Amino acid sequence: MRKHERSAKGKVVGMEADTCIKGAHILYHGEVLKGCIAISDGKIAFLGKEANAPRAERILDARGLLALPGPIDAHVHLRDEGLAYKEDFYSGTCSAVAGGITSVLDMPNNSPLVDSASRLAERARKARGTIVANVGFYSLLPADLNGLRAIAEAGAVAIKVFMHEPRTELPVWDEAMLLKAVSLANRLGLPVAFHAEDPGIIGEAKCKLRPGLDPVSKFVLSHPPEAEVEAVGKLARLLRGLRVHICHASVPRAVELAKGAGFTVEATPHHLFLSSDLYERLGPIALMDPPLRPRELVMALRALLYDGLIDIVASDHAPHALGEKLSTDHVPPGIPGLETMLPLLLNEVAEGRLSLQHLISLVCEGPARIFGLRAGRLEVGWPADLVLVDLRAKHVVKPDAFFSKAKFSPFEGLELRGRPIGTIVNGQLAFWDGEVVARRGCGRILKPEGQSRGQGDEVPS
Ligand code: DOR
Ligand code: ZN
Ligand code: ZN
After folding, report:
1. Which residues in the chain are classed under CATH 3.20.20.140?
2. Residue intervals in the chain for CATH 2.30.40.10
3. CATH topology for 2-68+381-436?
4. Distances from the Cα of 98 to the Cαs of 113, 168, 285, 310, 391, in angstroms?
5. How far is the CA of 257 from the centre of ligand 3 (A)?
6. Residue 199 Cα, ligand 2 centroid: separation in angstroms?
């Protein structure tokens, strides 16, 4: 399997790889093999027995570690621009690689919003040269559906619709309009991801709040499980069979409705591993949207995960300044999650509740399939994005040490088994043994591949 190249004089010569990762166990096609991974020009050049490996300029000693394909976190708010005080492209992608994540998909509720091809291109321009993990971008629906084609051509990975706070001038509450928008997006090759909460139920619940409640209780009571079930039910009736993705499903009934309609479903580690009793102890530190659910619902959601009904796990990394979270009147929902997601899932593997292959399906293969990305596979010729993990390493979640600007977590103090030790992005070592060692800009901008694009009809105005 030695890689060859032709020299200038036309002679075939043995080629050296840039890097050879030696001594690791490698998860390859569902089996754990002992071998070597060689990397050339940012791609995997060789995968196999050490005796057959090419010579390499650099050797990375990975004895005792397990090499996995680089995880793709499909739900991340990297912020930057007007919200850079919460997180920026550099701090957010440092947080990613420190958490063993090599690719992230960035949400569009930024300041300014991402709702056009030019905004998306502008954001990609700012990210390039800074990011140390790969980044793909979501867009909101444009005010005029004719703008969708340019959004697809600009390389959006998906469209995001926030049902309860649309952030678009397009009337997405109008069912005919929503159907038209999702159908067109799909024809242009774009899946449509939903934050599914029914605004009517949220509004009614807000009206019924008794006076004098603290901001966290107000938020939790006005975002009940029924708001999610109602919203997913509506989408299931309207958009059955279309390429629809349900973000951060927190209620088992909503997962069943979504799967019944052929949608893909995402769950977050916080909805899978934490329950609403935590609000008493942590208040705003554990507030996110959707909020944590009662224990019975959490157990049932986790059972759906183990049963294979949940397609992907994503962090919904939604950083805020600590001062904002501790404000006495308005508490923004959202918690950082990039540095805890993989450790929490590795802990499930180490404890024997989740198989390694299932983990890879949830954070590598699933997101790659849903969003059409050439990433998340350990295979010769594919981009060399991978993570080296120690499945035995015990550690305690310490938000003070996060690379994210948001140094808080509802998982603080939890002891976990299994942690990322090294993260490689495009063939370059980005994180090693607790330190970000990446060259700024080693991340690439992710665009969907291999899908029918550009076949959408223009919408008459
Ligand atoms: O918890 C959340 N935070 N949920 C959302 O839908 C938005 C997000 C954010 O941007 O902070
Ligand atoms: Zn959301
Ligand atoms: Zn989100």
Report:
1. 71-371
2. 2-68+381-436
3. Urease, subunit C; domain 1 (2.30.40)
4. 27, 34, 21, 25, 16
5. 21
6. 13
- 130 contacts 89 by C-beta, under 8 angstroms: yes
Catalytic residue among 289, 316, 385, 390: 316
Q: Which of 84-98, 180-194, 437-451 comes out lowest in average pLDDT?
A: 437-451
pTM of the predicted model as reported, rounded to 2 decimal places: 0.95
Q: Is 289 one of the annotated active-site residues of the chain? A: no
- Minimum CA distance residue for ligand 1 atom 3: 334
pLDDT band per the 50, 70, 90 thresholds, residue 267:
very high
Radius of gyration of the chain (CA): 22
Ligand 1 proximity of 109 Cβ (cutoff 6 Å): yes
Q: What is the pLDDT of residue 30?
A: 85
Q: Is CATH 3.20.20.140 correct for 71-371?
A: yes
| 9 CB-near residues (< 8 Å, 6+ apart) | none
Q: For residue 162, give both structure tokens.
A: 């926030």
The reply to whether ligand 1 has any atom less than 6 angstroms from the CB of 318 is: yes
* Ligand 1 atom nearest residue 332's Cα: 11
Query: What are the pLDDT digits (tens) for 304-347?
Result: 999 999 999 999 999 999 999 999 889 999 999 999 999 999 99
Sequential DSSP letters for 161-185 = EESSS--SSS-TTSHHHHHHHHHHH
Residue 379 pLDDT grade (very low, low, confident, very high; cuts 50, 70, 90)? very high
> Measured from the CB, is residue 289 less than 6 Å from ligand 1?
yes
Q: Ligand 1: which atom is nearest the Cα of residue 333?
A: 1
The whole-number pLDDT of residue 29 equals: 87
User: How far, in Å, from the CA of 289 to the mean position of ligand 2?
Assistant: 6
Q: What is the arithmetic mean of pLDDT over 40-58?
A: 95
